[in-house]
Amino acid sequence: MRAKLERNRLIRIFKSIYPETFYRSMVVTDNKEVNKIYEKLEGYKKKLAHAEAVYDGSKKTGKPEGLRPTTKIGTLGPVGRKVDSIEHYNEKIKELIPKLEAEQKTTLREKQEACAFAFFTNRVAAASAAQSLHAQMVDTWTVVEAPEPRQVIWSNLKIKYFQRIIRQYAVSFIVALTILFYMIPIGLISALTTLENLKKLLPFLKSILDITPVKTVLEAYLPQIALNVFLALLPKLLLALSKAEGIPSVGHAVRATSGKYFYFTVLNVFIGVTLGGTLFRTFKSIGKEPNSIVKLLASSLPGNASFFLTFVALKFFVGYGLELSRVVPLIIFHLKKKYLCKTEAELKQAWFPGDLGYATRIPGDMLVITIALCYSVIAPLSIPFGVVYFGLGWLVLRNQALKVYVPSFESYGKMWPHINARVLAALILFQVTIFGYLGLKKFSSRALFLIPLPILSLLFAYVCKKKFYRSFSDTALEVASRELKEIPDMESVFRSFIPPSLSSEKADDDHFEDALSHVSRIGSFA
Amino acid sequence: MRAKLERNRLIRIFKSIYPETFYRSMVVTDNKEVNKIYEKLEGYKKKLAHAEAVYDGSKKTGKPEGLRPTTKIGTLGPVGRKVDSIEHYNEKIKELIPKLEAEQKTTLREKQEACAFAFFTNRVAAASAAQSLHAQMVDTWTVVEAPEPRQVIWSNLKIKYFQRIIRQYAVSFIVALTILFYMIPIGLISALTTLENLKKLLPFLKSILDITPVKTVLEAYLPQIALNVFLALLPKLLLALSKAEGIPSVGHAVRATSGKYFYFTVLNVFIGVTLGGTLFRTFKSIGKEPNSIVKLLASSLPGNASFFLTFVALKFFVGYGLELSRVVPLIIFHLKKKYLCKTEAELKQAWFPGDLGYATRIPGDMLVITIALCYSVIAPLSIPFGVVYFGLGWLVLRNQALKVYVPSFESYGKMWPHINARVLAALILFQVTIFGYLGLKKFSSRALFLIPLPILSLLFAYVCKKKFYRSFSDTALEVASRELKEIPDMESVFRSFIPPSLSSEKADDDHFEDALSHVSRIGSFA
């Protein structure tokens, strides 16, 4: 009841601030319960369709009356009572539909959070509302531009201003720990997975490893394969951590994951392998001068040039080959088709290619840029390798992005500042390490001429940040005031934000109308 | 011509962004020339009034036909040709009026800058316009809330985004140099102005200095008087530097000056005197451990307790005494009245008390808070001294603010975050020094219990900053949407922004209308 009063007060204030452009509001609700029931229901629906398809299939192949599929129920799983699948699922669905409807009503009436979407009839008003301070106390009323409906992370919408900040710091701390913790196994991997070490550790493999072609291939690719496998484990953890930060949009969470993964790859793969590979060689010098990281990095870089060049080569030869041919998804699809999929929907889902996977792809590319830049002076071969990587990438991924993958959201280029910042960070890292590297050589005094380079790069990064970044987080009013080719229907915009678990299948939607918006519709689309 | 086209484009965009709330715009012009002529004209007008008053006075006292005052003209000043003052000034004024009018026209037509005031008929639209990004490139179109007309620094309005940033860094650098440079003379003053040193340096004063009452007074107040005199020289320089930063509002420039002056007083007076007074005693320990400033400060604090206590006492006894009695302005007024002022306007100006002078008063109070806090454990007498200082200050300055001074601008409490941040900085400085101080004593291990204090203070400062500060720089829309008691007339709001040098004395103002706003008035006050 208190929440309702609060909400009515809020709507009154909104109407007085935006008397002409405020369309209506949608209060965010706690959808945990209703989502659970909805997913159960959808699961049973899928299982029913599957069972029906199996039954139809059995009619065609076996007896004309068909073989009704059975399923075992009860907590004991395979030991439970055998029942007719179709009947069982139909029963379950019949049970769940009224339960879902009741839960929908409860959710809409009683589980309202102190948070809402506001819809405006005018794009300038919406863009400027997202940028303006609404209440004097910053934390009593925070506003953000609403993400696309398919990007919204509903459970994160309700998080309060200071809780969000605390979560961000906590997650940063955990991510820092993760990065430091991963350092150890990666250091071990790069130290152990040389062929000599393998022979010593696993003497029974010696006979195989002494065959020349096997030896050549393994010598070149063994550490890289180990590293790549290792790197594949992390992104899901980082995405979960990014969501735990309280970011309310999937696109933003993916960007945050990509950022974390970039720190991880540069710190662990690039610096970790560079220092780790020389860890046993230069262990004493680390102990003596722990803060001379630049010098150490510079002196360790040359020894790992071949490792990183093969790392890049593996990425474009094997990586892009797999990417373009899509051999692995093809095999998985055909296996699924043969043994699992019975219905059209299941087949479609098995074929579905997913989206581009920015969270891991971008940091991978950024790592290659870092490697290509940092080795460009020490091992100039890294430049053609980088060119080939990005040239092939342009050809392959352009095709994949346009013809294969299905984007799951549109972030309107918000990845640009993210990538720009990281390319510049890689550039500055390169300039600093090359300064350290030249400082170690004969030309040490001439290395001083390189000092302006990182300063100029920092200046450029600062100007970029100031000049360009803000228009990615805030919509410029001039852009918002441009005329649209087609004017969207406000009602359909509003409806698109209703989560599937809350949208009733009834045609009239009257209870929804009632609970989601007590506001009479004011104004019309401008 | 290009500027005009640009401006028309801008107005078109503005109209499309704010179709209903945009009232009109006032283009900022380069008023340097016109201001010069206007000031000359005003100067002659004042001189004419003065000469006429002198002539009238001579009629009453001397011959009935009066003695016409004369003035000497020509570059040679007193050696030049003698002319009748009234005639001369009348002539000059007649010459200047058409010149001013011509320059006004030229300024309004040809000296337009790429910068304008925008007037809105709706306060919410104005408040949200000042907070929103208008063009995609941040530096092509920057918006700020317009200060009050009397606060506007016209010459700073035209400064571009990046030039403003560069100016800020340049000024910060100069201020840092100033603060470091002032350290040396202050150190010398506090070392030299002890009575023993004075006797040594100026032996001819010895006979006077040995008289007991003179000795007592001088011993207590000599270093403080020297210090106070020294501190009086700086604010004007800092205000000029703040204006050179490109701040477009007087109130903001005064705040920036106050901030710089605070850094100066704390670094130079508080830390400078503390270390400077012990400079000759602990010179060797500085040389050995230059980065143990906290420890050094903590060990030096007790030796300067009496200095700072008398500093505070001097401030409230002598400072508030002078403040309340206003003896100095009274003497100056009577001297001016007797020898200089002839007209009513001149008398009024001589009596005018000015404003409160935040730029120097706030840092002074902040310094007292810093002293009272930092000495509260070492020399607890500092607490009653601080209480008396602020208690008396409340009584005296409340009276002065309400009944004596005439505020020259209204910043709507924007001083609050400024003072809040500095009080918290003083608190944290106190907590850190007291930690260092206790660390030196027997209880060194128990000093560890003090570690949470500065951390909690920092946390509190962070929360304050996040929660409260933004509403001082941006107007909250909820506040802007509240109903006003009286609705201001838009035309008079617009007129109040016209600088006096550009406002014509003609009644019709037609050329102004023409040049300042090519916009037909659209909309009406909402």
Automatic annotation (TrEMBL), chains A, B:
Domain CSC1/OSCA1-like cytosolic span(s) in chain numbering = 6-156
Please give the InterPro entries that the UniProt record associates with this protein: Csc1-like (IPR045122), CSC1/OSCA1-like_7TM (IPR003864), CSC1/OSCA1-like_cyt (IPR027815)
Q: Which UniProt keywords apply?
A: Calcium, Ion channel, Ion transport, Membrane, Transmembrane, Transmembrane helix, Transport
User: So which domain of life are we looking at?
Assistant: Eukaryota
Q: Which residues cross the membrane?
A: 169-192, 261-283, 303-322, 367-397, 419-440, 447-463
Q: Where's the CSC1/OSCA1-like 7TM region domain?
A: 167-437
Q: One Pfam family this chain carries?
A: RSN1_7TM
Listed PANTHER family:
CSC1-LIKE PROTEIN ERD4 (PTHR13018:SF100), PROBABLE MEMBRANE PROTEIN DUF221-RELATED (PTHR13018)
Protein name according to UniProt: CSC1-like protein ERD4
Annotated source species: Salix suchowensis
